[in-house]
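pls ignore typos typing on phone
guanine + seq
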Amino acid sequence: MIIDGKKSAEELRKELKKKIIELKSDFNAVPALTVILVGDDPASKIYVKNKEKFAKEIGINSEVIRYPSNVEEKTVLEKIIELNKNKNISGILVQLPLPEHINKRKVIETILPNKDVDGFHPINVGNLSSGYKGNIPCTPHGCYLLLKGIEKSLSGKHAIIIGRSNLNGKPMAQLLLKENCTVTITHSKTKDLKEECRRADIIIAAVGRPKLVKGDWVKKGAIVIDVGINKTDSGIVGDVDFEEVSKVARAITPVPGGVGPMTIACLLQNTIECFKKSNF
Ligand code: GUN
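k done
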């Protein structure tokens, strides 16, 4: 089975659109998202364009603030502080990666936790790991929703996460733990990645290595979620060898059309949640 992330994202956006209509009638206002984009990384430009497009499509007020790659860190931090104070702005997102001279940690920690639609602020990270409410990072949240769409109860399943990033691997582990999965996080120093994968009921590949996960790495009937977006000579491919793995997996996400659209839909959901927090 191929997991249709595009369709799931469309359905979620439809629900969110309805919610915004209700909010508009209740508060006479709609959620607003400001995205800050520094530099001209081609992939980031595409991601940001899509975030803006889908936000507008469901009725979120969306604005992108663009800075050249040599912008001073201070300018970005001052803009975030200004947006923090602006009651009309529900969510702030600074697209990553940032140029080296800008301290990513400072940027993330300057965004108010209640406007942090990425869920990257340590307060939101702490809330997630403590099992409290807070903004959940969009990509792992999207993976989680796709998984739940396949299998209602994940309890007792053995999940392997390939990659330990703050954006994906670590928050993914928290979400799966909450579902009572047994979670293994693997990384570049893991001794026998293939063997780890072969034991898993669920594989989340989020490492940025084209077609790393092969057919003989996957147990028959496993669910495979591919977070990778890798540019190669033969086009965009994931971290999973789709052709091989789709023959053994019970369900697998394609790249593109799997996790990507869900990431954006979850961002829109977080923006609405932030709006609600500032109005209730
Ligand atoms: N760059 C790649 N993915 C993301 C994301 O989810 N959020 C932000 N802010 N930057 C990213």
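The domain at 138-260 is CATH 3.40.50.720 (Rossmann fold). Residues 93-96, 118, 138-139, 167 surround guanine (CB under 6 Å). more later
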